[in-house]
Design goal:
binds iron/sulfur cluster; 3 domains; binds adenosine-5'-diphosphate; 370 residues; binds magnesium ion; 7-stranded mixed sheet; Rossmann fold; single chain; disordered N terminus
Length: 370
């Protein structure tokens, strides 16, 4: 696992001195990341699911705004963690990026090329380069297929990149890469444990040598003891195959462990984004602060001295989000302006040091007593 250390990049604007980078090692790493190109550029992405009424003549009466104006970059070789409560649009975002669901509006560029405008061979090539690992290793593998057929299936869909010679050998190599015995090639999914099935899912994701892997809660369904093994595997594969990861989870501790940067989602929007140090130690958005205050602290002294924020009220419906700031119905800092004006995701000029990162709050600021 990656140590949560000062080796994290500090993103900058226009190649200036990295904000928050202090040690020479940190500055070097920050500059290294700056040089990397974005592999995915997402701009004002929206996915609205129509709400219809009537059986015979369906009439649209509204829309579930599952993803509602999300912008971010995924840099080459980085891990971007995405956190947020259940129902905030994480999986929908992943599916739209994968082209499994068409976007309602907005732009997704892969290496500078607009995905939504591609078709035929161009689209197929992009699909090959962006793979997904799903949450549930029990339902995402076809129980009637052998492990060899499951892992080798992408070769059938993309014969242009399939190994020219022995496919069986290629599948066995993939089993070996994810730490499974290559002799298991003829076994069926039910013969494996949860952690092993997730390794099979990862091997399948790797078959076509993708550049981006979107992991949607890849360890949430696994026992705690197995979660670390799968995270370790993902980290070692990243170095070996130069992968960029988008890592979705609702568990903030796991996301911190694996991520270089973290984006926080609330009700279809990104409300804060920054390096792991910026988000975990210098959060400026009240929603992020509330999520962090709920993370269990093992040290009893630290636990007692900490002010926990208890969010009141339910998450509003994504079909009818509040005006202005979407978080205002649950925010203890809300003021009249929050009802009128939708806060942009940007750096507020009054913030300093590691607090200077993108936050969608009119009154962004670090918390005291944390
Ligand atoms: N196919 C769909 N049709 C209608 N609503 C959907 C569909 N998929 C997801 N939603 C809704 O979109 C919102 C976001 O869901 P989802 O992306 O699964 O969130 P998360 O992964 O963060 O839990 C939820 O309110 C969910 O009910
Ligand atoms: S803009 Fe207002 S309601 Fe929204 S998070 Fe900031 S203080 Fe709270
Ligand atoms: Mg989900």
């Amino acid at each position: 696992m990656r140590a949560s250390s000062g080796r994290r990049p500090s993103m900058t604007v226009n190649g200036a001195t990295p904000v928050g980078a202090t040690t020479p090692e940190e500055v070097a790493f920050a500059q290294e990341v700056q040089r990397g190109e974005p592999i995915l550029e997402v701009r004002d992405l929206r996915k609205h699911f129509p709400l219809t009424k009537g059986v015979l003549f369906k009439k649209q009466v509204g829309a579930v705004k599952a993803v509602d104006g999300v912008s971010f970059d995924l840099m080459q070789g980085e891990t971007l963690g995405i956190v947020g409560e259940s129902g905030c649009g994480k999986s929908t975002l992943a599916k739209v990026l994968m082209n499994l669901e068409p976007a309602t509006t907005g732009s997704v560029k892969y290496k500078g090329e607009e995905i939504s405008r591609l078709s035929g061979a161009g689209l197929k090539a992009v699909r090959r380069n962006i793979q997904m690992v799903f949450q549930d290793p029990y339902t995402s593998l076809n129980p009637r297929m052998t492990v060899g057929d499951i892992i080798g299936e992408p070769f059938e869909i993309h014969p242009e990149v399939a190994p020219k010679g022995d496919r069986r050998k290629a599948v066995q190599d993939l089993l070996d890469v994810v730490g499974l015995n290559p002799e298991y090639i003829n076994r069926y999914p039910h013969q494996f444990s949860g952690g092993q099935r997730q390794r099979i899912g990862i091997a399948r994701g790797l078959a076509l040598k993708p550049e981006v892997i979107i992991c949607d809660e890849p360890v949430s369904a696994l026992d705690v003891s197995v979660q670390a093994q799968v995270i370790n595997l993902l980290e070692s594969l990243q170095g070996e195959f130069n992968l960029s990861y988008m890592f979705i989870a609702h568990d903030l501790s796991i996301v911190r462990h694996i991520s270089d940067r973290v984006g926080v989602m609330y009700l279809g929007r990104m409300v804060e984004i920054g390096t792991d140090l910026e988000i975990y130690d210098h959060a400026t958005h009240p929603y992020t602060q509330a999520l962090l205050s709920a993370v269990p602290v093992p040290d009893p002294t630290a636990r007692e001295s900490r002010d926990r924020i208890v969010l009141t009220g339910d998450v509003p419906s994504p079909a009818n989000p509040p005006s202005g700031c979407r978080f205002r119905t649950r925010c203890w800092k809300a003021q009249e302006k929050c009802e009128r004006e939708d806060p942009a995701l940007t750096v507020r000029e009054w913030l300093e040091g590691r607090a200077r990162h993108d936050s969608a709050c009119h009154f962004a600021g670090e918390r005291e007593n944390v």
